[in-house]
Amino acid sequence: MLKSGDDHLRGLRDGRIVYVGSERVDDVTAHPAFKNGARSIAAIYDMKRSNEHTDAMSFEEDGERFSMWYLKPKTREDLSRRMGAHKKLADLTNGLLGRSPDHVASFVTGLAMKPDVFDKIGPNYGGNLLAYYKYMRANDIYSAYAVLPPAGARNPELYEKQNRPVPTLRVVKEDDKGVTINGMKMLATGAVFADELWIGNLIPLAPHLKKESITCAVPCGAPGVALWSRKPFAKDATSEFDYPLSYRLDETDSMVLCRNVFVPWEKVFVHDNADAARTIYIDTPSHCLGNHQSNVRFWAKMQLLVGLASRICQSSGNDQIPAVRETLGRLAALEATIAGLVYGQIQACESWPPGYVTFNRRIMYAALNWCTENHSHIIDTVRELTGGSVFQMPADVSVMHDDKLREEFETYWSTPFMEPLDRFRLFRLAWDLVGSEFAGRHIQYEKFYAGASFVVRNHSWREADWAEFHRVVDTVLERMQVPPKPASK
Amino acid sequence: MLLTGKERLERLRDGRRIYLGKEKIDDVTTHPAFKGAAHEVAKLYEAKADPANRDLMSFAENGERYSMYYLRAKTREDLARRTACHKALADLTYGFFGRSPDHVAGMITGLAMKPDVFDQVGPGYGDNLLKYYEYARKNDIYPVFAVIPPTGIRSAEMYPGQERRDLSLQVVDEDDSGVYISGMKMLATGGVFADEIWVGNLTPVSEKAKKESITGAVPVNAPGVSLWSRQAYARNVQHPIDYPLSYRFDETDCVLVAERVKIPWERVFVHDNGTASRAIYIQSPSNCYANHQSNVRFWAKMGLVVGLASRITEANGVSHIPAVREQLGRMVALEATIGGLVRGQIEGWEEFPKGWACFNRRHMYATLNWCQEHHTEIIDVIRTLVGGTVLQMPASIDVVEDPELKKRFEDWWWTPSMPAIKRMKLYKLAWDLVGSEFAGRHQLYEKFYAGNSILVRNQSDREAPWDRFHKIVDDLMDATPEPGNE
Predict the structure, then answer these.
(1) Residue B67 has pLDDT above 80, yes or no
(2) Which of B19, B22, B257 to mutate to test binding with chain A, by most A CBs within 10 Å of its CB?
């Protein structure tokens, strides 16, 4: 099934509990902090099912159409189709939604390509996962995940010693029908706009933390679930003109608080197995398919940044200065770099697991590392090109509503290169990418969405073919023999 | 005279025209967008008027006391007194006020040490400046400046032949009593809280555009003056804990729009002289005194940055990890670097101009360059140490107003290293330094307050003793014999 945007919005009116500070939000599709974000998500669903995009955004199996990100790739061509759909979606949202509907869906699809990894946990878990995968694609589910314990709370003993409740989400009860979970998990980006939450663990758990290993799916509106949102940036965005990105593309981040939430057995995928809770993502294409979407999304964002950088330089006539052209050339080279890394993952695809193909994992992790390392610096370059002009613009577009101020604005703010209102528009967009709170969150997010740098680099370390690298160096070392002692004269 | 905080605030209720979007602000001392910072400015004057700070923040001359930043230094000791006062003021505002009252005051004081630079403009201008200096220190004036033409217009100069629309602030008329100026000038940082605006040019003005060379002093409330503020970051803050810096330390940036504003001749310092309009700052200690304050301010900011970095690692429970200690060690080394660069300017002081003392100009420009090059990276280190935790905090501290939410918050956000509300305070502070709109403005500001990197590096190029450096290399080459001449 391919949902419409309206279908999706209707699904969000499910009684979910969302807090913004002390305010309880009744309907995220109508609340000023979230309604435009919700519409941006709805627009993705409408685009996906429009005739124009059907082939690019969906595939057919057993006579039914499903969103492309549920495709289990069997050929290199399938990988290209997946990538193409990620790119179209990311282009629609300028790469500013990290956890768009294709992210967690790709994780689950990757798991469904190798369900036998669940055998080590016990019977049925693999079956549960396959059934959930089918349910998701059949209902075009948007899933968000909460897969990290709250920061600073990774050692429960320190809590128990002080007789305090351990905040980390865990199983507190189980019976014939399912498990009951209690506690907090972070950081459910996009959850406010999603149908379901995937609860699990992306970082290793100590072996004795079995009850925290719970991996399961929970509807966002399930009884006992509450989402505590960070400050939503659309809240104070006076208009789309003043904050063009904050206004409609704040994907939101929320803490997930569960109070005695019941999960039926068929939605439980890992239980009482600390090791499996994390390895399932790496022993299957799950982590690779999910993070490939992140690479493609970054590429879409780079295209916005490069275009903006050039327009900013044109607005002042600086685009003719050789040093400025050099900087623009460098930014364009960086855009082509991430594009090349994305294409390279397809060209060098792996036949894995049996019967399927996967993006080249080493190149995918290299791209993830590249994005994490370079984003701050790229934004700083755009900041430099933007210069102080952003501060010369009036506080907001309301000046255009006052005849006298409007006339003054149009007189004084004009330049030989660009009309004043166009400059105003351009620099508001620039500010929302380099300076606003939305921009600040993106700079923070791009550093941490895939984990801290040591986590990202560990993935590359793990996947590297060290034996081959060692062989290369050893062949040289072996040639280096101590020369025979010269014969004495 | 030393103004009190209360007097400072009273002076701001003078009918000035400030626009925030289309909203005209009637009283900056009570408007939610500005009152927090207005009171921080008042606190600087409170501190300065406090007898306990008498020797630190003021000096006596001819039986009257003046703010320390109006001191014309004669000795190294005087320079150290200026530095100490800048530091005390910057510490009170954590280095977030780039154009605090001591910045442009330093610039004017530097001019008053070499009034003969105005001789190139014509007779009388040097006296005008000296009288203005006397007036400013006597009335404890808070001056700010607008010394850059609007972007876009500036670059039009590079393309001769293209139609040029002269919207840059310039003299449009003059008569016996003074000149009349119209046009736009940027960027009057702090103008909202100041008494007077120094209009001038820190970038070169071509002789063809000499009407733009006008340099003069204009009261903020002068008829025809309006200030167009950028977005004010305190505007939407509901609770100071949510945005502790935006709420109190947004110094504001405004575009100055002048519509036939009259400047009486005695407040005109440069007129019809493009070269002099910029040269006066460099041929006197003016630019050095003003930017020394910027160096000291950055040092104060670094104190907050390193303290916060360390507290964050404690809160995240990682302060004992060797790699984290290495990072903290590097941060305090950077703090000591800027501290050393500030002290070095005093130790390496110059007698300039004759009979007066000036901070070492090369060290000062080197420091300016260092700050510009390092700020982004320093903030990025904090961002890395902060991690994702900032995004886990509830949208507002107002959760504690609801007893049920408060209990959940205190239970679930508590960590072994820190109770929940304290953590929230810490991470909201961190966010206001690395992620909020206030933080975004600071990251851009630190790149551009002294001009772009080309301008800043040109200053070092200009002051460098190239002859001495050339001699070193030439002597070395000369000492190397050519083949056949061994």
Answers:
(1) yes
(2) B22
